[in-house]
Amino acid sequence: MAVFQSIRNFFVPPTNFESEEIITPTPTTTYEIRPLTDRQLKEVLKLNLRCFKAGENYTKYTFSYLLDEPNSLSYRIVTPNGQMVAFIFVMTSREDGTGHVTTIGIAPEHRRRGLAHKILRHTEEALRKRHIGLVMLEVRVSNVAAQNLYKNLDYAIVQRLHSYYNNGEDGFLMVKSL
Ligand SMILES: CC(C)(COP(=O)(O)OP(=O)(O)OC[C@H]1O[C@@H](n2cnc3c(N)ncnc32)[C@H](O)[C@@H]1OP(=O)(O)O)[C@@H](O)C(=O)NCCC(=O)NCCS
Fold first, then answer.
1. Where would a tag sit more exposed on the chain, N or C end, judged by fewer CB atoms within 10 A?
2. How does pLDDT run across 66-83, given as a tens digit for each residue?
3. pTM of the model as a whole
4. Whose CA is nearest to atom 30 of ligand 1?
5. How many structural domains are present in the chain?
């Protein structure tokens, strides 16, 4: 887990997210999953700021690190005009055969359309092909939407992580065997 701890240590709350966004769901469209590379650094950073509150999101340095790290897998979902509306990053460890979902986010105006479900399933399939047998992740105890998503995909809570987050909030450790 040392590598995951080092990722968390990159975590510095940004100060540039001040106003609440008004969300209007976009018209139904088609979506495609593609690899997420360092060419999308700026775009993923922008989307991440729309997905997470100040203090809960990763910095540019964290994303640069993850995009550069050979043991990291990352995917995005795009609309027909190429706009990124979802992202996911997973760190893998070949030594112990595990994957660790470090972050996942869906653009607010594209939520409740199965995109998180779709990108997670896609990622799990990619992990299976790499002989990864166990996926784990942490989620805030207050983040019921994400917990429901993971439970629907057969992730189970195995541990409560006391004061896991920077603001003192507890987290749940959830795992799934692939
Ligand atoms: C959590 C999040 C990733 C879900 O993305 P999404 O694309 O809207 O989720 P999906 O449409 O694939 O939903 C799959 C299931 O998740 C659960 N779910 C998703 N949003 C939910 C909500 N607002 N309330 C309750 N359950 C929710 C439901 O069980 C849903 O299945 P259903 O639609 O059949 O009821 C998205 O809300 C998000 O980006 N949130 C901010 C970032 C975040 O919290 N990331 C997770 C950090 S651990």
1. N
2. 999 999 999 999 999 999
3. 0.91
4. 149
5. 1
